[in-house]
Amino acid sequence: MALNTKTTLSDSVVDLMNQAVIISGNSYNKIDAYATIRQDDMANSIAFTVFSRMTKATTPLADGTQPTSSTMSDTKVTLTMDEYGSVITSTSLANIATAGKADLASAELIGVNLGETTDALGLAVLEAGTNTITPTTAGTLASDDLRTAYTELATAGIAKFPDGRYVAFVNPAQISDIKGDYISIAQGTSIEEATSGMVGFLEGFTLVEDSNVTAGEVVCFGMNALGKAVALAPEFRTSDGTDALQREVNMGWYGVLKYGVIDQNALRVITGA
Questions:
Q1: Is residue 107 part of a domain?
Q2: Which of these, 254, 268, 231, 271, lies nearest to 118 by C-alpha position?
Q3: How deeply is 264 buried, as exposed, middle or buried, from its count of CB atoms within 10 A (0-12, 13-18, 19+)?
């Protein structure tokens, strides 16, 4: 992350705060691990292309006869990026009263806000998906509902993630509905699993618990369902406050980006669970 050095903070403190923002931000953004991310620093929009599959060539080729050539077809989804950011103003008195801990605490809060904000942005576009599934029992998530989502995705030929599974983002309330059904991930299995929200596996899905998912909804998807366009990756920034004695420091994050659904076929939303 690039740093704005016009600040009353020392370079060493800024470096520490920058690291705190990065660590906190990565911990609270769970969706980016499953997004197709493209960055172009010189553009305000980025096009994602989804190519249609070719027809299965099940007819034997006749000797001396050329196969019929297919024309490539594709669908483009263009994401026009927006500015996002948030700021905290820290004061000299607060930092003195906390023996220098107020600034670092602010950095952690900024990182959490960055992660939670971008995570919520990504999940919001997924929840608006057009392919919905009604649960077997209204108000309750069941294994059968996930099995239906898996069957639809697999039948459509949607690619799985590298671990061989699709992913389902689930609100904590719905995770409790299936608590006894899924294979739990042992605590401390890996740093990635400990910080990613992954709780287990069920019906061909990696289950990710995320409070940014609307209660009653479950977002199930495969590769290339979610796109993220980035012109400026979110970065930590600081600037002097408005106080004449420089007793204030503004700290925050700023980025230019956009989330969007690239392929609706790769997405299923269980609603009303």
A1: yes
A2: 254
A3: middle
| pLDDT above 80 for 220 | yes
CB 1 within 8 Å of CB 193: no
Q: Quote the domain boundaries for residue 144.
A: 11-51+74-270
Place of tokens 């939303």: 269
Residues 6+ apart with CB under 8 A from 75: 49, 50, 52, 263
- Contact assessment for residue 143 and residue 202, using Cβ atoms and an 8 Å cutoff: yes
Which pLDDT tens digit goes with each residue over 139-155?
Answer: 999 999 999 999 999 99
SS3 content of the chain, % helix, strand, coil (to 5): 30, 30, 40
Give tens-digit pLDDT for 36-89: 999 999 999 999 988 888 888 888 888 888 888 888 888 899 999 999 999 988
Query: Is 36 part of any domain?
Result: yes
What's the domain count of the chain? Answer: 1
pTM: 0.85
